[in-house]
Amino acid sequence: MSINCEILDLRAFLSVVELESFNRAADTLHMSQPALSRRIQKLEQVIGAPLLERTTRHVSATALGTELVPLVRRMLEEFDGSLFAVRDVGPNRGGLVTIACLPTAAFYFLPTVIRQFNEEYPNIRFRILDLPATDGLQAVASGEVEFGINIMGTSDPDLTFERLAEDPFVLAARKDHPLAAKQWVEWAELEPYHLITVHRSSGNRTLLDAALAKSNIKLRWFYEVTHLSTSLGLVEAGLGISVLPQMATPREDHPFLITRPIRNPEISRTIGVVRRRGGTLSPAAERFLKMLIGEWGA
Question: Sorted alphabetically, which InterPro entries does this protein's record hold (predicted)?
Answer without folding.
Answer: HTH-type_LysR_regulators, LysR_HTH_N, LysR_subst-bd, WH-like_DNA-bd_sf, WH_DNA-bd_sf
